[in-house]
Amino acid sequence: MKGNLGFTLIRNGKLVDGTGNPFVEKGAVVIENDCILYAGPEAGFPQVPPETRIIDAKGGTILPGLVEAHFHATYFNVSALDELDIKYPVEYVTLLAASNAKLLLECGYTSARSGGCLFNIDVWLKKAIEADIHLGPRLSTSGREICGVGGLMDWNPDFRKIGMEGLILLVNGPNEARAAVRKLVKDGVEWIKTYPTGDAAAPDANDHHTLCMTFEEMHAVVATAHNHGLKVTGHCRANEGIKNALRAGYDAIEHATFMDDEALELLLVRNTPVVSALYFEQATLELGRGYGMSQQILDGHQETLDGGRESAKKIIQAGGRMGIGGDFGFAWNPHGNYARELTYFVHQVGLDPLVAIKCATKTGAEIMGREKDFGTLEKGKLADILVVDGDVLHDISILEDRSRFVAVLQSGVVKAGQWAKPQGQT
Questions:
Q1: Contact 364, 323 (CB under 8 A)
Q2: pTM of the model
Q3: What is the mean predicted confidence (pLDDT) over 383-389?
Q4: Is the distance from CB of 206 to CB of 238 less than 8 angstroms?
Q5: Average pLDDT value for residue range 362-389
Q6: pLDDT by residue (tens digit) across 101-128?
Q7: How many C-beta neighbours within 10 Å does residue 211 have?
């Protein structure tokens, strides 16, 4: 993605730098090769050479490339949980993952953290993207996930005589938990994704079920992962499961659905980021009955949405860190709808659009451990930039419409949007 790209000037747009600071009404960004040289008022940008490429923001918005903080590259049109590991062979799943990665970039997401991936495909997808073999976001990988025997992701009964090897690593006790982490270390992942608690989608391991993994197993995962320089996250909905994860030293929490004051205090003291993934629940409630979901399941998702929304409000109001991302790839919540999570947080959780964008850019980069490289429009950072024809602070849902994207830049290179088309190269 590097090279002698010369200078690029992006002008004539409202500048939202991703820090949460007030926007600049008439802003500009100057890029030299792959990095930002200047970001601020258009009246103050430095002199640039005559051959500088100029991208007109059309009076719209200039903001950092978005970060999808919970990306499942290998989920595709899943209509039931058990389809995650038996629907397609690995060859086809690899092609689907590549397609999903390209779509994510086209939707303005220049970076993403994997939230679990079949067959460790994200590890190899990342290599292909970094080698410019395939279009996609910068990736933090997680590969296969870890779950306790009989937990949320262990649904194949023994009589089927098939395992869960492509999707998860099943563990029973701390020693097996350590061994599972070591396998993932060897596979080359960056994040270890675990399942400490249940979910409304599984009545036998529901939202308040905390025994999908024991504390001893969770602690063993964290100690081993940290020893190898890896980070740990977990699907944590139940209150006690959230506290177990925080006490074990988890580096992030997925969902954090039901939290009491003690759990919130633990979260804040440790400054642990959360990715709530709320729009998935909304989409499930709207469309789930059409996929055969019972009223019991739908009631569980309603409880999950209500609890998750309140927890997200508490975290933000208390000064906690929130990334933006969701379980896209289900039939009722397909890839391509990523920005609906942002719309939900603004309209239903009550976030100010500037705060929501900060969550989806700066905090996302922090979760990936790449905040020094991207996530905000500041001098010296990689030029990962989204230019939108429209005022996203006035109407955040504009980000759902990729036809409105003037340009999606990654390291100063236009990868998608109107400027990626031949007629834009003028």
A1: yes
A2: 0.95
A3: 98
A4: no
A5: 98
A6: 999 999 999 999 999 999 999 999 999 9
A7: 15
Q: Amino acid identity, residue 163?
A: G
Look-up of token digits 């942002």: 342
Residue 295 has pLDDT above 80, yes or no: yes
- Residue 238 identity: A
Q: CA 319 → CA 198, 268, 272, distances in Å?
A: 27, 8, 11
Instruction: With H, G, I as helix, E, B as strand and everything else as coil, classify residue 316.
Output: helix
Q: Are strands 385-388 and 322-323 parallel, antiparallel or unpaired?
A: unpaired
Query: What are the start-end ranges of the H helices in 197-294?
Result: 215-227, 239-248, 261-270, 279-287
pLDDT band at 206 (very low <50, low <70, confident <90, very high): low
Q: Token pair for residue 344?
A: 């939900």
Question: What is the tens place of the pLDDT at every residue in 72-89?
Answer: 999 999 988 778 877 788
Give Cα 70 distance to the centre of its chain.
3
Domains (range + CATH), the chain = 7-65+374-424 (2.30.40.10), 66-368 (3.20.20.140)
Does residue 426 carry a pLDDT above 60?
no
Quote the CA–CA distance of 258 and 305 in Å, as a whole number. Answer: 10
The long-range contacts involving 44-48, CB below 8 angstroms and separated by at least 24 positions, are 45/9, 45/11, 48/7, 48/9
The two beta strands, 322-323 and 35-41, are unpaired
Indicate the residue type of 160: R
Give the Cα separation of 35 and 382 in Å (integer). Answer: 4
Nearest to 125 by CA among 89, 99, 86: 99
Q: Is the pLDDT of residue 319 over 70?
A: yes
The strand pair at 385-388 and 405-410 is best described as antiparallel
Query: Is pLDDT above 60 for 158?
Result: yes
Write the single-letter amino acid at 176: E
